[in-house]
TrEMBL record:
It holds the Pfam family BRCT. DNA ligase that catalyzes the formation of phosphodiester linkages between 5'-phosphoryl and 3'-hydroxyl groups in double-stranded DNA using NAD as a coenzyme and as the energy source for the reaction. It is essential for DNA replication and repair of damaged DNA. InterPro entries: BRCT_dom (IPR001357), BRCT_dom_sf (IPR036420), DisA/LigA_HHH (IPR041663), DNA_ligase (IPR001679), DNA_ligase_AS (IPR018239), DNA_ligase_CS (IPR033136), DNAligase_adenylation (IPR013839), DNAligase_N (IPR013840). This is DNA ligase. Belongs to the NAD-dependent DNA ligase family. LigA subfamily. Its cofactor is Mg(2+); Mn(2+). Residues 612-681 form the BRCT domain. It comes from the Bacteria. NAD(+) binds at D44, P45, E46, F47, D48, S94, L95, E128, R151, E187, K303, K327. The keyword Cytoplasm does not apply. GO terms for cellular component: cytosol. HAMAP family: DNA_ligase_A (MF_01588).
C-alpha cells in the first residue's frame, strides 16, 4: 500500500482511523513475512516508514489507537512455527527509534524528567552498535546452557536449543561466578561475507535466497532440523539479559563486562558516555566505521547505565523507556513537482498536496507529498514544474525539503481564495495559518467528509457504506445527515435501480446499518465529530454520564453558567476546558441540535457501562499534588496506571485518593472538605511496593 502522505495533523479522524486500520493489517503482514517467514517483500526503511506513519497518527489521534496496534506488538506471533514454544519469564522487548540528534536529545530530556533529576545530576548512557540479527535468549542454570529461545512475539518464542549448539560464540558452560539462573540476551547474526557466500551457494543449488543478513541468520537458526543450522556460519553477541536470580552489578556497563567475562562476546564498539554530545560523538564514530564492519548494523543503541534507574523507567507498550535506538538516516531524492492539488477536509480545511513525478526515496516510490498549508508553499516558493528535493528520513511522511528552481521563471502558485469544492470563500482566521472553506453545511466536501467520519471504523463502523457510495448517495440527496443512513432501507428499490447493485449487496448494506440501531454511545458521540471529542474523550465522557441525554444536559448547563455542571465535566480525567467549551458550542447550534435529535430518533444506544477490574487501587481515581520528592509527576501517573488506577488532575467528588507532597495547597484543602482520603508520597510508595 502507499503511505498516505497527508500530515497527521491534517488528516481527518475518519481518514486516520481507516489508515490506522490499513496500517495495522499491512504491518502485521510484513511482520509475518519478515519474522516468521524470513522473506520480507519490502525494504526495512519502507517498513520503518509504515511504523513511523502509524506512530505519528497515533500521536495525533491518541484515542484512535487500536487494540491490535502495531505499536504494541513485538515481532510476530509464532503459532505456525514447527519449533516448540517457550514462554519467556521476562518479556523480550523491541526498541523505540530516534532518527535525529533532536530526537536523541528529547529522549534524554524525557528520561531526566521522568526520573525528576536535578540539573547537575549526570546520566551515564551506554552506546553500542545496533546489529542486524535476531534476538535470542540463552538461559543458563548453574552456568550451564539449558535453553535457547527466539523472541517470537516477545512473550512466547521458539525453542532453538539444539540449533545454538552449533554456534561457537555461544558457550554451553559459562566461566566464573555465574548466578543460579541467568538469561543472556543478544543477537544471533551472520557476517556480510558469510551472507554473500550463503546466497551464492543457495543460488547455485537453486535454493531460497535471503533478502539480507538478518533474514539469513533468522532462517538459518529457526530450523526444525538443527543439522541445517550446523552448516550455517552463525555468530552471536550479547547486549542484555532477561530473567536472573541475581543481577550482580549496578550498571549496564559493568553487567555487559561481567557477561563478557563469562565467555560471551559483546559489541567491540560498546562505550559509556556522559551526555548527549558523548552519545552523538559515539554515533558518528560508529557511523564512520559502519562500511568497514564485517557485519550489518542499522543504528546505535543507547541505554541508561544505572540499573536502578532502568527499573524505575520501566516500559511503555513494547519497548523500554530506558533504551533508544538511533537509526542511521535515510535518503533524499530529486524530482519534479507536477501539480499542487487542494483537498477539503471535514472541518473545511484546505490542504495542499504536491503531486510528484514518481521517485524512489529510501527504497519507496513517492508520488505525493503534503505541503501542509499556504505558508509552507510560500516558504519553499514552490510552483508546479519546479525541481524539488524529497526526503524520507525514517520519517514516514516524505517531506519536500528544498526547491532547486526557486529562481527560475515561472508563475507563482496562487493559493485559492475560494473552496475548490463549493466555491465559497476560503479564508484564514486572524492569526491562523490554515485556510478554511466558509461554506459550512453548503460545502459538499465537508458534509460528505462528516458522513464518512460517522460510518468510519472508530465511530459507527458501518460496513459496506464506503466513500464512493456516500459520495453517490449524497449527490442524489439521500444523505442529508447521519440519521438518513438509517432511512436508506426505504430506498431499497431506488438503490437497485441505480445499477451496479445486486439484491444481495443492498441487503448486506441494509443489514450492516440495521446492526447499528443500538450503537455504542461513545462511538456514536465520537461519530458526531464534535471538536476535540476523539474516541478516548468520548469514552471518558460516557463513562461518567452513561447516556447521551445526560451528557447533553451537563454540557448545556455548563454553557449556561452552571458551575457545578462545569466542574463535573472538568473533573473527568482527560477532559479539559477545550472539550467542555466545544461541547457547549456544539449544543448551542440549532443545526447540531437537529442532527442530534434526528439521529437519536433513529438509534437507541444502551446506557454506557464499564467493567472494572479487581485490585487494591484499580478503578480508583488518584490525584497527585504538591512536590513529589522521589519521582516526577509522569512517573507517579505511570505507576497509578500500572496499578489500574486513574490519575486525574483535579480533585472532585469522584476522587478516591489524594497523594499530597509538600506545598500542596488548594487541592489538599478541597480533598479535606470532601472527606477524601489523603496520603503522602511514602504512603503511595507503600501501595506501589505492596502491589509488587
Ligand atoms: N522489511 C520488512 O518487511 C520488515 C518487517 C518487519 C520488521 N522489519 C525490520 O525489523 C526491524 C524491527 O524489528 P524489531 O521489532 O526487532 O526492532 P529492531 O530490530 O529495530 O529493534 C529491537 C531489537 O534490536 C536488537 N538489538 C540489536 N542490537 C542491540 C543492542 N545493542 N542492544 C539492544 N538491542 C539490540 C534486539 O534484538 C531488539 O529486539 C526494523 O529494522 C524493521 O525495518 C522489516
Ligand atoms: Zn467548500
Amino acid at each position: 500500500m502507499g503511505i498516505d502522505q497527508t500530515a497527521p495533523g491534517e488528516t481527518t479522524e475518519a481518514d486516520a482511523a481507516n489508515e490506522l486500520m490499513r496500517l495495522a493489517r499491512e504491518i502485521a503482514k510484513h511482520n509475518r513475512l519478515y519474522h516468521a517467514k524470513d522473506a520480507p517483500e519490502i525494504t526495512d526503511p519502507e517498513f520503518d516508514a509504515l511504523v513511523r506513519r502509524n506512530a505519528e497518527l497515533e500521536a495525533a489521534f491518541p484515542h484512535l489507537v487500536r487494540a491490535d496496534s502495531p505499536s504494541k506488538m513485538v515481532g510476530h506471533e509464532i503459532a505456525a512455527s514447527p519449533l516448540s514454544k517457550v514462554r519467556h519469564e521476562v518479556r523480550m522487548m523491541s526498541l523505540d527509534n530516534a532518527f535525529s540528534a533532536e530526537e536523541v536529545e528529547e529522549w534524554v530530556a524525557r528520561v531526566r524528567r521522568f526520573l525528576a533529576l536535578d540539573e547537575n545530576e549526570r546520566v551515564a548512557i551506554t552506546a553500542e552498535d545496533k546489529i542486524d540479527g535476531l534476538s535470542c535468549s540463552l538461559r543458563y542454570e548453574g552456568g550451564k546452557l539449558v535453553r535457547a529461545a527466539t523472541r517470537g512475539d516477545g512473550q512466547v518464542g521458539e525453542d532453538v536449543t539444539p540449533n545454538v549448539a552449533h554456534i561457537a560464540d555461544i558457550p554451553q558452560q559459562l566461566d566464573g561466578d555465574v548466578p543460579d539462573v541467568f538469561e543472556i540476551r543478544g543477537e544471533v547474526y551472520m557476517s556480510k561475507a558469510d551472507f554473500l557466500a550463503l546466497n551464492a551457494a543457495q543460488e547455485e543449488a537453486g535454493g531460497k535466497l535471503f533478502a539480507n543478513p538478518r533474514n539469513a541468520a533468522a532462517g538459518s537458526l529457526r530450523q526444525k532440523d538443527a543439522s541445517v543450522t550446523a552448516k550455517r556460519p552463525l555468530k552471536f553477541w550479547a547486549h542484555g539479559w532477561g530473567a536472573a536470580s541475581e543481577v550482580p552489578e549496578p550498571t549496564q556497563e559493568e553487567m555487559v563486562r561481567r557477561i563478557e567475562s563469562w565467555g560471551v562476546p559483546v559489541s567491540p564498539l560498546f562505550a559509556r558516555v556522559h551526555d548527549v554530545e558523548g552519545m552523538l560523538a559515539h554515533y558518528e564514530k560508529i557511523a564512520a566505521e559502519r562500511p568497514d564492519l564485517p557485519y550489518e548494523i542499522d543504528g546505535v543503541v543507547y541505554k541508561v547505565d544505572r540499573l536502578d534507574w532502568q527499573q524505575r523507567l520501566g516500559f511503555v507498550a513494547k519497548a523500554p523507556r530506558w533504551a533508544q535506538a538511533h537509526k542511521f538516516p535515510a535518503e533524499q531524492a530529486e524530482t519534479t513537482l507536477e501539480a499542487i492539488d487542494i483537498q477539503v477536509g471535514r472541518t473545511g480545511k484546505l490542504t495542499p498536496v504536491g503531486r510528484l513525478a514518481p521517485v524512489l526515496v529510501g527504497g519507496v516510490t513517492v508520488t505525493n507529498v503534503t505541503l501542509h498549508n499556504r505558508d509552507e508553499i510560500a516558504r519553499l516558493g514552490v510552483r508546479p514544474g519546479d525541481r524539488v528535493v524529497v526526503q524520507r528520513a525514517g520519517d514516514v511522511i516524505p517531506q519536500l525539503v528544498d526547491n532547486l528552481t526557486r529562481e527560475a521563471e515561472r508563475k507563482p502558485f496562487r493559493f485559492p481564495d475560494h473552496c475548490p469544492e463549493c466555491g465559497s470563500e476560503a479564508v484564514a482566521e486572524e492569526g491562523e495559518v490554515d485556510v478554511r472553506c466558509t461554506g459550512g453545511l453548503i460545502c459538499p466536501a465537508q458534509r460528505t467528509e462528516r458522513l464518512k467520519h460517522f460510518v468510519s471504523r472508530g465511530a459507527l463502523d458501518i460496513d459496506g457504506l464506503g466513500e464512493k457510495t456516500i459520495d453517490q448517495f449524497f449527490a442524489l440527496g439521500w444523505l442529508e445527515s447521519p440519521a438518513d443512513i438509517f432511512r436508506l432501507h426505504q430506498r431499497r428499490d431506488a438503490i437497485l435501480a441505480l445499477g451496479g447493485w445486486k439484491e444481495r449487496s443492498v441487503d448486506n448494506l441494509v443489514d450492516s446499518i440495521e446492526a447499528r440501531r443500538e450503537p455504542d454511545a461513545a462511538r456514536l458521540l465520537f461519530g458526531l465529530g464534535i471538536r476535540h471529542v476523539g474516541t478516548v474523550t468520548a469514552r471518558d465522557l460516557m463513562k461518567n454520564f452513561h447516556t447521551l441525554p445526560a451528557l447533553r444536559e451537563a454540557a448545556e448547563a455548563a454553557r449556561a453558567g452552571d458551575e457545578e455542571a462545569a466542574a463535573a465535566l472538568i473533573s473527568i480525567d482527560g477532559i479539559g476546558g477545550a472539550v467542555v467549551e466545544a461541547l457547549g458550542d456544539f449544543f448551542h447550534e440549532d443545526h447540531n441540535k437537529q442532527v442530534w435529535d434526528d439521529i437519536l430518533s433513529e438509534v437507541s444506544p444502551p446506557p454506557y457501562v464499564v467493567e472494572t477490574r479487581e485490585s487494591p487501587v484499580s478503578g480508583k481515581t488518584v490525584v497527585f499534588t504538591g512536590k513529589l520528592e522521589t519521582m516526577s509527576r509522569d512517573e507517579a501517573k505511570a505507576q497509578a496506571e500500572r496499578l489500574g488506577a486513574k490519575a486525574s488532575g483535579s480533585v472532585s467528588a469522584k476522587t478516591d485518593l489524594l497523594v499530597a507532597g509538600p506545598g500542596a495547597g488548594s487541592k489538599l484543602k478541597k480533598a479535606a472538605e470532601l472527606g477524601i482520603e489523603v496520603i503522602d508520597e511514602a504512603g503511595w510508595a507503600e501501595i506501589v511496593a505492596a502491589a509488587g
